Amino acid sequence: MSKKNLIKIVGKTIDGKIVVGGLLRFKETYGLPLECILDFLPKNMIPSWKHLLDEAIVIGIKREHFLKELKTIIIDIYGKDFLEYVWKYIETYQWFKKEK
């Protein structure tokens, strides 16, 4: 039986950081809080925000709750300035725009 990697490399940033997906599947499989998973990512890795949102849809996480949690986690780990930068992207994502 082969093991399927939950966390996958999905790209690279212009400053050379590795972009990873599969973080919510990792959370669902091992029960670790998302904040811990993101906090323990090596400094040369960053989550794919698109993959996080896509995975939340598949898992069935309630949109409003997830976005509130994600916002808090981003501030705690990366800071408010980074939140402002990332949130501009997240707000353009179709799932974010859906009616409550």
In short:
With 100 residues, this protein is of the alpha+beta class. It has one domain (13-97). 58% of the residues lie in helices and 12% in strands.
Can you offer a commentary on this structure?
By secondary structure, this protein is α+β, with helices and mostly antiparallel strands. The protein has one domain. It contains 6 helices and 3 strands. β1 and β2 form a beta hairpin. α4 packs antiparallel against α5. The radius of gyration is 13 Å and the shape is globular. It starts with 7 loop residues before the first strand and ends with a helix. The mean pLDDT is 86.
Fold topology:
Layout: E1 8-12, E2 18-21, H1 23-30, H2 34-39, E3 45-47, H3 49-59, H4 63-78, H5 80-92, H6 94-97
Q: What structural category do the secondary elements indicate?
A: alpha+beta
Widest β-sheet, arrangement of strands: 1-2-3
Q: How many independent structural domains? A: 1
Beta fraction of the residues?
5-15%
Main beta sheet = 3 strands, mixed
**SSE succession:** EEHHEHHHH
Mean pLDDT: 86
Task: Give the helix tally.
Answer: 6
Shape: globular
Give the uncertain stretches in residue-range form: none
What is the distance, rounded to the nearest whole angstrom, between the alpha carbons of the first and last residues? 42 Å
Helix content: 55-70%
How many runs of DSSP E, i.e. beta strands?
Answer: 3
| Rg result | 13 Å
